[in-house]
Amino acid sequence: MSLKRACAIAGVAESRLGVVPDSTVLSLQAEAFVSALADAGLHKSDVDGLLVSGAWGRLPGLQIAEYLGIQPTYSDSTMVGGASFEFHLGHAAAAIQAGLCKVAVILYGSTQRSRADKYIFQIRSDLGYQYEAPYGLPTPVGSYALAASRHFAQYGTTNEQLADLAVSTREWASLNPKAYRREPITREDVLNSGPIATPLNKLDCCLFTDGGGAVVVVSPDIAKTLDKPPVWLLGQGESVSHAQISEMRDLTITPAARSGARAFEMAGVSHGDLDVVEIYDSFTITVLLTLESLGFCPSGAGGEFIANGRTGPSGEFPLNTNGGGLSYCHPGQYGIFLIIEAVRQLRGECDVRQVANAALALISGTGGVLSSNSTCILGVE
Amino acid sequence: MSDEDLPDPDSEPYWEGVASGELRYRRCGSCDAAIFYPRSLCTECGAPDPDWAVSKGLGKVYACSIVHRPPPSFRGEAPYAVLLVDLDEGFRMISRLSEGDPESICIGDRVQVVFNDGPDGLPTPYFIPA
Q: Strands across the sheet with A74-76, in order?
């Protein structure tokens, strides 16, 4: 069974990003919804599937459908943290392939910056978390810091290497007018930005912004009728590992190892075929661990892989070309923006940050505390 | 532990152990796996109702982060070292270096459990160099 070419992405859009005080978590999603449908050349009445995720509200999947005035006959509220939207893409493909819906919208929004919506990583002290709660681990950064500490000790990875990734990502952001932080930074800026939880410094950490996004996923027959070239889902895999960092067996291998293997096998492509890669960057270490787990480099070689500008606009490995969660936006759950940027790159819509002749893209979303991963391979042919 | 619904039926023997100076975990009667945090089935083979066991409280630091920007209720305590400790009996737990310079602990160091008052004044397992 395969999801290869089971669906295409026909429309993508962000809402306003950054600090958007004159919005609600619902209105921001509506903004993205309207724009993504317009991008696809479809109408609200065409939508029969809705996939949402969020920790706001009592029943987000119902509240947002009600607000939009749609009554989907297929819905999915999978909530596995920031990777949820890559899970949604696979689930939408399966639903479309099964004939359960034809036009599915994946939707997200957050006003965590302006309106103190319930932040997804609100500290809890019940159930399994009662064993972690007494120790003051800041969530999620402390968990990622523990993973980084392990990688440093096991492989000799350095803060300088992580800093170089933040610098390269910022260079991409400087080419994106929608990015929240665009001023250049240096390796020293990152190293001197102040420790949050060692070994991670402030500029190793993602932004904390408002923002929303929408992705319109359609059946192959509908895709062929639309004006813009379809972006096909060629492969997808997903994997869930744990909820708390103490339950992650090997802190250097993420669930991307399993989901990535499935995505590559389904798509029938290999690493060298990819033109552009978008990897969830909640923290610099997230990217390094995901690259290794996906097999872009051997275990332990991630530090070298990301160092010295290799992933920047003038490097050989175009990565996080919108500026990422580190510099473009990060409204709590970032994964939907990986899809949006990959689609724009594959359509050739990225202006000065366009990767030349981008035809094949990989996106990899990581949620929780290295807890969940879904990896998707997208292509225009 | 601060939630008023705690301890719960899964965790009551654990917290009772902590209060009496014991670090308890569970061990599967079928496949002998060590299980932590304690729960009602074996996470390896799925067998129900693993046995309770008592750890010697000795282990090795698997990962370590010094927290400089703590959650609000821990402000004033930073910097402190949060540890993942691999206990000799074969399970891993999260904890903290109990006292001393947080920079003094390294991954791979041997550590020993101690029971001190936690954030809510109740006994809580911490670790010191062994």
A: A74-76, A49-52, A103-110, A211-218, A8-14, A231-240, A372-379, A360-367, A276-279
Element (H, E) at B60: strand B58-67
B79 neighbors B67 (Cβ within 8 angstroms)? yes
Task: Supply the ipTM of this predicted assembly.
Answer: 0.97
Strand locations in chain A (E): 8-14, 49-52, 74-76, 103-110, 195-197, 200-201, 211-218, 231-240, 276-279, 360-367, 372-379
Domain spans in chain A, listed from the N-terminal domain onward: 8-118+210-232, 139-206+235-379
Is B54:B23 a contact under the CB 8 Å cutoff? yes
Per-residue pLDDT reduced to its tens digit, B19-60: 999 999 999 999 999 999 999 999 999 999 999 999 999 999
Q: State how far the Cα of B126 lies from the Cα of B102, in Å rounded to an integer.
A: 13
Give residue ranges of A with CB < 8 Å to any B CB.
Answer: 123, 125-128, 130-139, 141-142, 145-150, 153, 194-200, 244-247, 251
Domain formed by A139-206+235-379, architecture:
3-Layer(aba) Sandwich (3.40)
Read off the pLDDT of each residue in B95-117 and give the average, rounded to a whole number: 96
Q: How far is CA A120 from CA A104, A124, A280, in A?
A: 24, 11, 16
Note whether B77 contacts A: Cβ–Cβ < 8 A: yes
- Preferred mutation among A119, A129, A144, A149 to probe B, highest tally of B CBs within 10 A: A149
A214 touches A38 (CB < 8 A): no
Domain at A8-118+210-232: CATH architecture: 3-Layer(aba) Sandwich (3.40)
Q: From the list B63, B70, B96, which residue is nearest A138 (CB)?
A: B70
